[in-house]
Amino acid sequence: MNRTMAFVARKSFPYEKPSTWFPGHMHKTLKKLQSLSSKTDILVEVRDARIPLTSRNFAVESILRNKNRIIVYNKCDLAVPCEKSLSTFRDEMAHLQQSFQCMQDWCQQSQRVTFKTVDASAYVSSIPLYAKKLLKRIRNMSVHGLTSNERVHVYFVGMPNTGKSSILNSLRHVSLRRSKAAITGNHPGVTKHFSEVVRLLDDAEVFMLDTPGIMTPSIAAPEDMLKLSLVGCVKEGLIDSVTLVDYLLFRINLVDPSIYSKWSLPTNDVDEFLENVAQKTGKLSKGGGYNDSTVAAYILQTYRSGKLGRFLLDPTDKPSVELRLQRELIKSQKK
Ligand SMILES: Nc1nc2c(ncn2[C@@H]2O[C@H](COP(=O)(O)OP(=O)(O)OP(=O)(O)O)[C@@H](O)[C@H]2O)c(=O)[nH]1
Ligand SMILES: [Mg+2]
């Protein structure tokens, strides 16, 4: 039997370091959201489709209860398999949309926090079709009597770097053909302050507000920090890049080790993996050594840009979702 056929992936990844990333501006944002709660009519919570459960922000949930809520699972283009034709991509998107909706229904049933309405939506911020659909949902909620205020305020909230500002811009462009109103950037913490109100519709008093991305003050499980870091929600360097690559290797091996066949035979050993990648990408020095941080950074960048497999890091089947909700409940009761 050759090595590929004999390969058995690790079944677990022990990681116990509890931590979070919650700098001052996130504290301030949480407080401000709390104080603005009565003025918030529609909440658009933006999550990363690659971690649909882990990028849920329960700190925001608990202060903005009883609102109309739309959950947007953004960056779906990085969560569905690549090398597919556009029509297959559409099928994958429909499948993702369905699984996100089911997941939302299960969460809603067992949730301690209630919302007036909850809607789940798969999204890619650069594709206008999704902006049109989201715009329609917001319009229905605003205009068809779900809110009583004359002026409707739509708040974009969520974990850092999930694409809140990009979505605000995409909606504004589709609705009003106006240029960008919010600055976007490829690292977490780009938006540091609440934005001014930005008009969304020209025929109704509906306005949007962009908010800084916030993590939760504590993390439900240490492994969540690894997932959040892998997709770019956490400040670079907080978790050592080799540990992140080791975790990525663990996840890829569970999906399909042939994803990295251009670099290496299947392996569970991160050092062997780094060395093989260094060799294949010309990052070995004359003496045969390599800088593990440089190679790790290269692998992470390849993954984040969608060029190293597109898959979910969170399982979204019913038993896994329920197990997670149970764990969260136990943790919150212990506090
Ligand atoms: N592949 C992909 N990238 C996206 C998508 N939406 C946004 N991005 C990219 O993700 C990065 C972060 O986008 P932002 O809109 O700045 O994210 P944010 O949530 O406002 O981030 P903070 O303000 O830091 O909390 C940018 O590089 C965007 O171009 C998407 O649907 N797919
Ligand atoms: Mg932003």
Automatic annotation (TrEMBL):
Its main location: mitochondrion. Keywords: GTP-binding, Mitochondrion, Nucleotide-binding. Residues 27-217 form the CP-type G domain. Coiled coil: none annotated. Pfam families: MMR_HSR1 (PF01926). One of its GO terms (molecular function) is GTP binding. It is a peripheral membrane protein. GO terms for cellular component: mitochondrial inner membrane. Mitochondrial GTPase involved in assembly of the large ribosomal subunit. Plays a role in expression of the mitochondrial translational machinery. PANTHER family: MITOCHONDRIAL RIBOSOME-ASSOCIATED GTPASE 1 (PTHR45782). This is Mitochondrial GTPase 1. It comes from Schizosaccharomyces osmophilus.
